[in-house]
Design brief:
Blueprint: H1 8-19, H2 26-33, H3 37-47, H4 68-99
Helix pairs in contact: 1-3, 1-4, 2-3
């Protein structure tokens, strides 16, 4: 089976998705994108900024309440992450659609 080649843009988008997904592991992101975990790990080492955003989600045992401003920030980060995921999946679909045209 021939090895797959990915564009640098796809690699950078995958790394950005990982870095902006605070609750997701390398394995989860790699599985969602259909790539090997080790491949994503190598991309993170090469293209990563070492800055992984964290989203604070209050649990039931937390006595501190989340202010509206904090909640808006969390939702904005979540929207950004979801938009990145969508963009990556659209690019992947386009890439694989072009690959299957014989």
């Amino acid at each position: 089976m021939p090895s797959k080649t990915y564009t640098e843009e796809f690699k950078r988008d995958a790394v950005a998705l990982y870095e902006n997904s605070s609750g997701a592991s390398l394995t989860t992101i790699a599985t969602d994108l259909g790539i090997n975990r080790a491949t994503l790990h190598n991309w993170v080492k090469r293209y990563g900024t070492a800055a992984r955003t964290t989203i604070i989600t209050p649990d039931s045992s937390s006595s501190a309440s989340v202010t509206d401003t904090e909640r808006i920030r969390q939702l904005e980060r979540q929207v950004k992450r979801l938009q990145e995921e969508r963009d990556i999946l659209q690019k992947a679909a386009k890439y694989f659609a072009e690959e299957t045209n014989w």
